[in-house]
Recover the amino acids of this structure.
C-alpha cells in the first residue's frame, strides 16, 4: 500500500465548476502538506503549503487538512481552462531522517473544458 | 528572484553510459533535493543535500549519486545507465528550517533523460 493515495482521474469539468481534489495518507508522522500543479513537460509549481488541520485560502484555491482522518483536499473555485494540469499532493515529516523528502501522490489529471 | 534552473533540459544517452545533471537553486536556498518522475512510479525522492552534505537518501541503487558545492549548486550523476533510468529528473530547492526558512520546495523545469 502506498503511503499517499491520490485518485489519478482523469477528471473533466466545465469551466466555472468547483473542483475537489483529494489525498489520503497512512503515516501520521506527516506534518506538512503541499499541493503542486504540473503542466505537461514542466516542473511542479507550488500552489499551497499548510501545516495544521483546517482550511487555508489563496484566491480561487482552498487547501483543507484533516489530520485526524489523514485526509487532505484542494478545492478550486470558478475553474478555468488554464487550470487544466496534473495536480499533485505532497507531504513531509518533521525533521530528522525526513530531510528534504517529499512523498507524493500519483497526481490527478484535470481538464477544464470551455 | 530567479527560479531553480536545471541543465541540460534534454539528454539522450545509450545503455552503459554515464550522465551528469546540474541544478542551480534559488538564491539563498541551501537545501537541494532530487527526484525522479516516471509515468509508472510518479515522483520518487533520490536524495537531499544541505551545506554540501547529503542528509537523506531515497531507495535507489548506488549508481545514482550526487554532490553539492559551496555555492549550493548541485549535480547528480547516474553511472552505467539502464533503459529504466529514462525519466524526468527534477531538482527542488528549499530555504530549510535550519537556515531560518521553511522546507517548502520549489522545483526546476527538469531534465528529460532518454536512455536508448
Amino acid at each position: 500500500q502506498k503511503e499517499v493515495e491520490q485518485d489519478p482521474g482523469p477528471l473533466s469539468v466545465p469551466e466555472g465548476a468547483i473542483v475537489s481534489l483529494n489525498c489520503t495518507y497512512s503515516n501520521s508522522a506527516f506534518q506538512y502538506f503541499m499541493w503542486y500543479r504540473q503542466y505537461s513537460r514542466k516542473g511542479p509549481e507550488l500552489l499551497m503549503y499548510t501545516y495544521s488541520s483546517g482550511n487555508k485560502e489563496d484566491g480561487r484555491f482552498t487547501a483543507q487538512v484533516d489530520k485526524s482522518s489523514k485526509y487532505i483536499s484542494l478545492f478550486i473555485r470558478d475553474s478555468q481552462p488554464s487550470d487544466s494540469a496534473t495536480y499533485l499532493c505532497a507531504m513531509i515529516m518533521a525533521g530528522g531522517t525526513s530531510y528534504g523528502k517529499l512523498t507524493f501522490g500519483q497526481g490527478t489529471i484535470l481538464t477544464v473544458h470551455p | 528572484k530567479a527560479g531553480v534552473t536545471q541543465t541540460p533540459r534534454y539528454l539522450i544517452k545509450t545503455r552503459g553510459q554515464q550522465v551528469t545533471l546540474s541544478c542551480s537553486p534559488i538564491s539563498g536556498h541551501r537545501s537541494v533535493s532530487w527526484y525522479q518522475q516516471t509515468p509508472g512510479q510518479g515522483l520518487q525522492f533520490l536524495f537531499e543535500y544541505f551545506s554540501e552534505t547529503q542528509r537523506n537518501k531515497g531507495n535507489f541503487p548506488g549508481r545514482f549519486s550526487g554532490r553539492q558545492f559551496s555555492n549550493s549548486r548541485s549535480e547528480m550523476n547516474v553511472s552505467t545507465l539502464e533503459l529504466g533510468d529514462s525519466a524526468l529528473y527534477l531538482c527542488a530547492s528549499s530555504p530549510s528550517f535550519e537556515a531560518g526558512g521553511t522546507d517548502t520546495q520549489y522545483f526546476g523545469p527538469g531534465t528529460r533523460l532518454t536512455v536508448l
In short: Chain B has no helices and eleven strands. The longest strand of chain B covers residues 42-50. Chain B has a mean pLDDT of 93. The radius of gyration of chain B is 14 Å.
